[in-house]
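Hi L.,

You mentioned the student needs an example of a multi-chain input paired with its predicted structure. This one should do, with 1462 residues in total across all chains.
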Amino acid sequence: MLITCPHCGTRPVEEFIFNGDAAPSRPRKVDSDSAGQWFEYVYLRDNPKGWMDEYAHHSGGCRQWLVVTRNTGTHEVKAAVAVGDYVRGKAKLK
Amino acid sequence: MTGFRLDRGGLIDRTQKLDFSFDGASHSGFAGDTLASALIASGRQLMGRSFKYHRPRGVITAGAAEPNALVELRQGGRKEANTRATMIELYDGLVAQSQNRWPSLDFDMGAITSLASSIFVAGFYYKTFMWPKSFWEKIYEPLIRKAAGLGTASQEADPDRYEKAYSHCELLVIGSGPAGLMAALAGARSGVRVILADEGARLGGSLLFENEEIAGQSGFDWAQAVIAELASMSNVTLMPRTTIFGWFDGNVFGAVERVADHVAIPPHNIPRQRYWRIFAGKAVLAAGAEERPIVFGGNDVPGVMTASAMRHYANRYAVAAGQNIAVFTNNTSGQRTIRDLQSHGLNAFAANIVDVKGRKGVEAAVLSDGSRVHCDAVAMSGGWSPIVSLMCHRGARPVWNDTLSAFLPPDVGPQFVAAGSAAGKFVLSDCLADGAAKGTLKGKVLATPKCRDETFEITPMWWVKQSKGKAFVDYQNDATAKDLPLAAREGYNHIELAKRYTTTGMATDQGKLGNVNAIAILAEATGKSIPEIGTTTFRPFYTPVSFGALAGPFCGQHFQPVRKTPLHEWAEEQGAVFVETGLWMRSAWFPQQGEDWLASASREVLATRSGVGLCDVSTLGKIDVQGKDAGRFLDILYCNTFSTLAVGKARYGLMLREDGIVMDDGTTSRLADDHFVMTTTTANAAKVMSHLEFVHQAHFPELDVTYTSVTEQWAQMAIAGPRARETLNKIIDGAALDDVNTPYMAAREVTILGGMSARLFRISFSGEHAYELAVPADFGGGVARAIMQAGAAFRIVPYGVEALSIMRVEKGHVAGGELNGTTTAGDLGLGKMMSTKKDYIGRMMAGRGGLVDPQRQCVVGIRPLDKKDKLRSGSHLLTRGAKPSLANDQGYITSVAWSPMLKIWLGLALLSHGRTRIGEVVQVYDGLRNQHMLAEICKPAHFDPENARLHV
Amino acid sequence: MKYSVFSLLKNAFSAHQNWAPAWRDAAPKPAYDVIIVGGGGHGLATAYYLAKEFGVKNIAVLEKGWLGSGNIGRNTTIIRSNYLLPGNNPFYELSMKLWEGLEQDFNFNAMVSQRGVLNLCHTDAQRDAFARRGNGMRIDGVDAELLDVHAVREMYPFFDYENPRFPIKGGLLQRRGGTVRHDAVAWGYARGADLRGVDIIQHCEVTGIDVVSGKVVGVQTSRGPIKCKKLGLATAGNSSETAAMAGLKLPIESHVLQAFVSEGLKPFIDGVVTFGAGHFYVSQSDKGGLVFGGDIDGYNSYARRGNLPMVEHVVEAGVAMIPSLARVRVLRSWGGIMDMSMDGSPIIDKTSVHGLYLNAGWCYGGFKATPASGFCFAHLMAKDEPKDEAAAYRMDRFERGYMIDEKGQGATPNLH
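Structure written out for the whole complex:
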């Protein structure tokens, strides 16, 4: 599998460490009302079969966190962006 | 008549005679031979025994799919089991022996199993060997294990070397027959980077043995000209002896190059094999097609081989398998064999065979009209299967073609395409044109040379049902034609179930020869069509690959890199014994004459606690954190607060995971308003760095902060003991250290030894008045030597991680044994550190009921009631008088140490309700070592609980 | 027909023409009392025990592919009960005890072979962790031995003791651990369930779960709708997908785990051994192949195949442990999809939908759990209360904070 890092170019998969679904956002509140949100954020996953945006750390390269759009059924990689750009994109959609 | 060498022809060098031995007997062959061709030429058809019935077997192919002629090649640590004689290039002095037979290949006791073959049908073992129950491990299984298996692997270390390499190209061509050569030439002439790989010793593929005519010359000569042109081009890499074994995501191909398998011992500095990962823009599969056997009685008698193998041996190696050769074919390929064999003066004739007679060699064939014909070899052709394996490694399934009676490769997109006979093009001109078309990456498609064509026709015929003898589908595993209908009758009617029940296709050839026949027979048995039955799953490896190649140089001492601290040489000078700690080598203790580890570590503790000691703590992770928001960033990372820390001060910090469990701890110091230096544990340094990057980039990108791992930039040493300050004062520049300029938990930038910048932290893991001094890495050794000199008057000692560990257990400080990924801050007695005034990683989840349950095990101290008893880590704790049971299990000992100060074994433990049980006597359970004792629970700090020594 | 050496001899005389099918190729009926989704090891075992131990009748097992085509058909065949935590240990020991009598129980030779499982340790900290684990096992009545390096060397003289990067210091041995012929487990359970009237319906994919006012009433399948009173999901690898049909979101990610087999060899290594300084474990099948594996590739995946970096990683560790392996050849690799749960432990529980039960989250420990998983899931479905040994496998343990985290890695599925 190859991933095109926005900073480093196309690199082999072993340079990256994956950290699961990037879609859920960390809740901003820390009160008891938000406990359910926190539980869902930390523990529950859509775990899609198909396209998924996932966190990937380019630990063997630029050491930047990326969000990689990858198909979990075929391992096809569509895009990789810096996590900051992804978060800003997500905010815009809201 | 057995096999013999023809007088003329072949790509062998008759001037170079090579001697070799097989099963102890001396033979000779010529340069250019394979072990298989040389053995046949020596009259040796019998080369192996089958797996289950131990039937005599000869060579059946001339290539990589060979299921029968497997041998143990070489000896000692170089012995290699299951090596296909058809792929072994003959070299002088080669030593091989047959396998899976006892006492000898010619007389194999194992063959008595074939007498019971009416019982030993597919799956028989699932129905028996169940009584009596205890006999399985004791009797049945050991017998089965001994009888099973093929060759014997060496248990000596392999003395040869292996390498790994990467390569990139626009065009990878797999296979160098007519289609492959055209594809490579087309790509090469268009100027792109081309790799042409072929599993054979020589490039040329089928043109090395087929009589073809291309561009007015022989196919062989045409191939030589093309190869010469390719070899002359700088954009082309030719890789003979290289098997592409797998296709992976991203159009990455795995390959193994047999660099020195064709010589007895690899030359100095040359690896035996080289593993490649090839990154290809486009790949063309021109691997050709595999000829199928026909399933008839005695189709495994030595001397029966595929028609193409028969002419391969004759044309390329000048070897005949016999004088009178019956050719049984369902397609035009057989005609080619008859013609070629006749051209060598052999008596070859077409025959419709029902059964082949003979045991260790062919004696006669019974024909479909009932007549019997004398022959000493049989060639068979049941049609051709394109070698589609690689194209199916990523999940696609091949597609059945009725006209060709073959599965063709699937369409897997433009990055990987098949060409030539691998794509079902069984006519030469089509192969050449297809290769040219698929290999041309830009510009006009390369023109194809004229050639002589032969048409291809096939009339499907899979299984001769009138056969009386055993008819094999999978040769090596002894799966017969009758096994598949039996499997279907018993419910194993899906091809995958039939495969698993009969073991068809599970041998070392992975069904290359037999699978299509098996599918056809199963289709008939179940009343389905061949495409309805479909194939089993193709998976890597196309042909088996050695562990050595895949491991490359990463074994032995080079399995993982070694990290040495800047003080490593200094520690060596001091006589340190080192211990593996992750990738690091840490100095563990510094023995003086006659001391074991415990004596050494105890002496180091006593000397440190009474004078001064120096310890290398450079392996601790060090992260430099800078920026306007550095304090806020640390507040998010740690459960306690850092933004309020004064400049020039250090603070102990506790970091949680988002699930509320402790991740790491360490001391972080503030050097300036916008500048902190964080330390992590040795074990978690990389994890914490990655965590910082994640938390900042993914969750709090708005924070103005940067952070860099500086672990390797600094040498750090602890100077501990009541004479630590006096020692440091001898090397520090300017004002001497005192409690005013350097109070407890001070963090200062200082200069030492006349101007060297250093950082000084008055922090203590040992519980002593102590400092940590950090200096640029390259100065570490020199500074350590200077400190040793400065402390000589106070009898300074170097101390290692064993002494460090003893002192921290004496002090009750938590470390790896307690920070085990399941403990909370509360469990560690650090619950008060958790701020209630801010968000931090892990805050919300740490509040869940299960994480604050009073029943949780928390850290306590423990001491044996009888001072002579030795505590052991990993012992469990029970209420006194309770019987050992899971319900009564209350906790366990996490860390122990012999305390030279208190003259007793001390420990830390995790104990349910621990903090309410101080003073309780508990039962220590150590069933593993049969060491049980009573012990008293106490507070974690065993020694100097008031921390008075920090300030002496 | 009972399988025995006598029935084998008898059938040999009739050229094996008269064997009854091991199971019927059942077609779906309109309704069942209990439907199990997933005709793999856990699903078939559940149906078997429901019928045999709990007297439930009218059961169907729905399998989207062929029988046993899930992880029961693609694992490394190891059984053991050497667990660390009290939530796990009794469950896996129950499983071990069931393995020990399984073949006689379902009259099928699954080649349960207790040749020992040895975990190597290379540091003092690892040995301490093994001591904790081994004592926890013994306290629960499970066999465990702590070996020093000499004892390890006596068992396996051909490991690297001379030139290792991480010296072997000893190991934790469970002699009752071993291997089982994995496909035969599915076949034995299927045959046993079929004999007791269970309909095993292959090539029947569940496409929807019908829920009416919070209660399961049936499933939609590729072979039409089927009604049921109780529905059990045993679809590890695809649990998130099947549970989503009932609107449930699980604490699970799907990951690919590769495994490998070498060419067949004469007896080379007797028991199961795991390397402690890298990801590698190995055993030898009765057929002679070295069956080995390592770690998951690390990225979410539903594709049953992995990539080269993990292949290399595993094989490097193999050669580091056994230098002579360099000359052995790897024959085949494959990949299975693991339900990686958020604490590395499984779920056997009711769900918020009435009548819907979940068996999931087996990470890469599912094979050894097969008998106990089936038994406990059957118990739960039949009695609506968990069997004691599986009582910790509640789904709400994450929300309540009672995780069963053997590795101490937290909510990071790819690290379990």
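You could point out the following to them. The interface with chain B takes residues 1-2, 12-13, 17, 19, 22, 26-28, 30, 34-35, 38-39, 42, 55, 57, 59, 63-65, 74-77, 82-84, 87 of chain A (CB under 8 Å). The first strand of chain A starts at residue 2 and ends at 5.

Best wishes,
N.
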